[in-house]
Amino acid sequence: VLGAMAAERALAMATCTAPVNIAVIKYWGKRDTDLILPINSSLSVTLHQDQLKTTTTAAASRDFTEDRLWLNGAEVDVGHPRVQACLREGEQPPHSPGGGASLILTPPHCPVPAVRRLARKRRGGSEDAATLSLLSYKVHIASENNFPTAAGLASSAAGYACLVSALARLYGVEDELSEVARRGSGSACRSMWGGFVQWQRGERPDGTDSLAHQVAPETHWPELRVLVLVVSGQKKPVASTAGMQTSVETSPLLKHRAEVVVPERLAQMIRHIRERDFEGFGQLAMRDSNQFHATCLDTFPPIFYLSDLSRHIIALAHRYNAHHRHTKVAYTFDAGPNAVIFTLADTVDEFVEVVRRSFPPATNGDQFVQGLPVGSAALPQELVAAVVTEPVRGAVQYILHTKPGPGPQLVDDPSQHLLGADGLPRYRA
Amino acid sequence: VLGAMAAERALAMATCTAPVNIAVIKYWGKRDTDLILPINSSLSVTLHQDQLKTTTTAAASRDFTEDRLWLNGAEVDVGHPRVQACLREGEQPPHSPGGGASLILTPPHCPVPAVRRLARKRRGGSEDAATLSLLSYKVHIASENNFPTAAGLASSAAGYACLVSALARLYGVEDELSEVARRGSGSACRSMWGGFVQWQRGERPDGTDSLAHQVAPETHWPELRVLVLVVSGQKKPVASTAGMQTSVETSPLLKHRAEVVVPERLAQMIRHIRERDFEGFGQLAMRDSNQFHATCLDTFPPIFYLSDLSRHIIALAHRYNAHHRHTKVAYTFDAGPNAVIFTLADTVDEFVEVVRRSFPPATNGDQFVQGLPVGSAALPQELVAAVVTEPVRGAVQYILHTKPGPGPQLVDDPSQHLLGADGLPRYRA
Description:
- Chains A, B: Belongs to the diphosphomevalonate decarboxylase family.
- Chains A, B: Residues 18-212 form the Diphosphomevalonate decarboxylase-like N-terminal domain.
- The structure is a homodimer.
- By secondary structure, chain A is α+β, with helices and mostly antiparallel strands.
- Chain A is built from twelve helices and 17 strands.
- Mean pLDDT of chain A is 88; it is low at 1-8 and 90-102.
- The interface between A and B is medium-sized, with 28 and 28 residues.
């Protein structure tokens, strides 16, 4: 115990997990690229961490001689100026467009200095020597995802939300942290909450009112389910950070969307969620996804995230809903090729079978459905005839079945830290 | 001659040709579906009839016992209620959505009664017995295109413009005819003029000010060229008549486009044309094509006319322009898969070679370029490296090279009539 106490002084460590979120009223475009202030409010559903999560361990020690960072077990060159500039405090290196694919510490949006500043502010008066010295130590950070990066599900939102949560724990900060997470990656602020989350645009130029808050917890709508259709043969799409600023500069339709359409839709969407009205929720989610992609197409040069396969999936969803004469499934697409389907628990088995028939697995298919259990379903012949047209083999790699889930979690069990007592990753790539 | 005179009394006949037009400020959406009044003004380039034209012969005779219609040599069943209702006068049968693919006489938009009414009005006072009896005769109409229907180039605009022109000649009407053509198919009014043509939205509820007029004649910009990239494996897309009304009903972005964006763009486009400013003209044509397709995507359920191949062509054009550091080619896409490229004469040879390298012909390629002559071009290696990425064999069926051309033409030579002295087609399918 004495040894542990000594180690505790010498090495402070905190581990958190954080979720992915999927927007149903989309964020696209910043009014301030340094502070990451959006041109419109957005609303998302936080996905359950049992299926998709990032885990991050942050450690500080007087024994660390340099800042170090590991992503999915592989060390990122900390000598790289971008990483260095991020980890050091007070610097404002030139802004470079981020990738958005995973946790990439792009200055000036690195949360490390921001959380340190919050910690100093908190403790300003008091003389907590332990914390003050902790703040002067070098940090080791390790972060990993419980899903394959190649699937295009890697989320900078989960990555930054997790980093901010772990650092805040490390330094004992208990402030509202969505503003800090937002400065890492805009949509990361929505991953700071579970359930149904609104990111309010805010009005102030300093961004202090551009925050995320919970509209309803994950327990509010127990029947809601999410199917992620992971698409095969993904290419690297246009980076969203660069893409959205081109849209802001060139799309007249995006301006109208942000100023006029989104405020109305946001209020409607909150109402649909409060009333657990799937018809309204699903219809509006589809319309808003389509409108986001419409503004990408109105960008010059145009940006395309939807492919012929996306169109296949969209048409399939509309045929399925038309067959049932109401909205049973709703698609939404972000700045990548995967489709996310919202549905209710009683529809999952049948719709998964419809997807399996429409996009028959290329291999034997025993890994075709992952995540929450899916039962088998026999499709009525008239449903098959009306809905399953022109199957495309192998186009969907697998389906991930999940549901809304909670916000970032503290990992109490020390055996779950990604860093060992020596401050190095327990598992290397 | 005497026989001819007798025949002339017994059989009156007129033949006209009319052009296809391609919009650079797009028309999408009606504010009045019966009168075909658009929600916004539009602007098009009339294509030369040497490459793309419709020819129509209209005949009236006291000997005809029924109205008859031949399209591309095949008789259309005149017993069909839609055709009958169209040819008869004064009827207002229930509106049904038209195909838009070729000349289809859809009531209540058939120009025959409308031109007859104009003829009566003109002659109202005078006692021209010959014309009055002509108006009481049954009509035979034959219409054909000088391009394959399967190529997706068949144009209801050329078809209706030609029918109206031939009927007006038959009955001796010399009025402004774009309003009559408009009621056949909206964009047909623009095919009533050559060169650069604006269709003014108009304000009046009766549509009498919703007319086409010429912005500049085809001789105004002699260097301007048009390349139609005819795409292989075409499927029947969503019919534009039905599609555009769904857009009017469901797309908030279309409303904004029509009310705010188009009025500004129309004035800009006219300026670019007047100044023969290809940079401005091409950029705006591309932006407006993209915005039209954006509003299709914002429609619910969404409408897709652009495919992965369209995206390939769009990306190719942007790479080509980027390589040359200014706008050398400009794409525009209508409600179908073919791409139309605007360029200047000095760029044609090189860009055609770029297209040939990017979409190598599936066969030996001797019919790959049609229409106006295209010279050979050796592509600099750095151009190939920068622009020709991932060739897709056989995706483009052929390229049609054409240029702006004149409006409808009267065919004086009687040997060119599509109907013989017996009132029947000279050539049958």
